[in-house]
Every structure is written in C-alpha cells, then in structure tokens.
Amino acid sequence: MTVNFNHKQSAHCENGVVSNLLRFHGLEFDEPMVFGIGSGLFFTYLPFVRVNGIPGVAYRIWPGQIFKRFSDRIGIKIERKKFSNPAKAMDALDQMLDKGQPVGMLTSVFFLDYLPAAYRFHFNAHNIIVFGKENGRYLVSDPVMETTTEISYEDLARARFAKGMPEPSGRMYYPLQVPGEFNTEKALWTGIKQTSDHMTRIPMPLVGTKGMKYLAGRMRKWPERIGDRKAILWLGNLIRMQEEIGTGGAGFRFIYAAFLDQAGQKLNNDKLIDLSKQLTKSGDKLRDFAYYAGRVCKNRKSDTKTFAELGDILEECSQQEQAIFNELYEVSRSK
C-alpha cells in the first residue's frame, strides 16, 4: 500500500524524520522546533571510547533521544520496536505499510544504495522513513535527499541489521497517538532548560562546554603525544563528525539558533532572539575551525594553522557557548 506522503528535505536526519512523520499525522513542527524542544544540542568527547582506534566525539545527544524527549513534551505516544531476526523485522514493516502507516527506522548509511558511493560509509545511526512499497521495492523518504527514492528488500534488510556500534537491530518507530492540544510554551522552556543545563552544569570535564575546552587542550598536544600521522587522522575524524555525520557541530548551532529565534518570537522574548544571534556566531567560528583543520589535514602550506592554534579556536567556541548557555539557563529556570 502507498500513502500520500509529503516529503521535505532537512539538514539532520532525526529531526527531519520526526517532522515528516508528524506532518503526516497532522502536526506541523519544522526541523528547528523538533531539535530545540527535543534538546538535541550537546557535546561530548570520549577519549576512552574508540571507534576504529579513534576517540569518540559527538555534537548531539544519543540517537533516538530527540524524538523521545520531543514526544514526551508534546504528548505523542510512540511505538518503538527492535528485532533479532531480519525476516521478522521486514514482515513487521510490511504489516505497518499495509495499514497505511509510514515507519521511521535506524539504518546504516553504507547499505543505502540510492546514496552516491562517496557518501556511503559505516555509520549505523541514520534515520529514514519507509512509507510504501511498489513492485517489491520500498519507497523511502530520506531527509537528506531532495526527493523521495526507493530501495530493494535486500539492501534495506542489510541497512537495518548492519554490524558495528550502534547496531540498528531492525529498530523502527511510528506515532500511535497524537494530541489534539498541547502546551507549546511549556515544551519550549523545558527544552531550552535541559539543553542549557547539560551544556554548562554537568559536573564532568568531558561533556558540554567543558568537554569542548578539554578537547581543545588535548588537541594542542596531539602531534607530540601521538605523532603527526595519527594526529592528522584524529583531526580528520573530528572534522568528519562535525561537518558530515548527522550535520555536526556548526550545523547544529545554526539549527538551534533558528529554534531560539522562533521560540523568541512565539514567546515574545527578545533575550532568546539575541542569544540566537550569538549562537550563530559560534557556529561561524566552528566552521572556521573546520576550514583550517581541513587545510592541515590536506597539508596546505598557505593560510594554515598549527594544532595549538586550532585548539585556541575551539576553546574560544567553548567560552562563547558557556556564556550563551549560562544566560539561557538563567532565563529558563524560572519558567
């Protein structure tokens, strides 16, 4: 069965899937609102967690949490399932499609054959929507794509059960019930308060703005501590996590700034609008960091930076965001 599904492209997969699923069910929330109410912005540096031998870094909360937090705050009942058997997972998907229910799911980018080869790598937390089936092929709304596309049974099954961390395990999800009424103001302030709290007040040096500062300090010492070759490899992975995987650091700042601007207008709060502009500047600074780091990785001799200078840029971002999210916390905690 194929339904009339309205696909809209987005910057980040989980935000886009949530927004597109809810639109199908009659709720209009764009990507910044989903990301902001769902408290998606975060930062963590995990030197003791290695992926292919490289320390882990994330600019967002764990996959799935944006939808969970957003749903809790708006009052949406979500059905979530995971499977140990690919055939049973595909049968469950077919059953939902037969009912006319589009389904969100976690997949591995590597097995999504509709993506250009250059963009297919082993990343197992990409969200897509399957909304129908025609001639044995599944119809896909992938938020990073301009239009809808399709995929074979075999490739979709592989994408849903790829090995690695995290394992998708056939996970799929969809709204069971959406509210007729909800408290938008409360949801906005709850999302803002949690984000600002987690960015500034978790008493650990590896998370939030403290984590950015900690990484800046470690980065300055990479060449002498681990050697030039490995330092370049680690730096390249950091850029990839920031600019390619799940939108990353700078892109998330721009999305969250758009959320603050919208929230400021809805709540008639000029402070939120001003902080939105400040966060945009932090996003610009992170883009500068990625530009100069990329030149270091490509060994471009002109207009380049040392690892110490790259650490200085990242620490400046940390200081800017510490001030921004401190203000946001003070504004939101009384609401």
From TrEMBL:
User: By its UniProt entry, which InterPro entries does this protein fall under?
Assistant: BtrH_N, DUF4872
Q: Which residues form the Butirosin biosynthesis protein H N-terminal domain?
A: 12-143
Pfam families, per the entry: BtrH_N, DUF4872
Q: Which residues form the DUF4872 domain?
A: 154-328
Q: Which domain of life is it from?
A: Bacteria
Tell me the protein's name. Butirosin biosynthesis protein H, N-terminal
Please name the source species: Ohtaekwangia koreensis
Taxonomic lineage from the root: Bacteria, Pseudomonadati, Bacteroidota, Cytophagia, Cytophagales
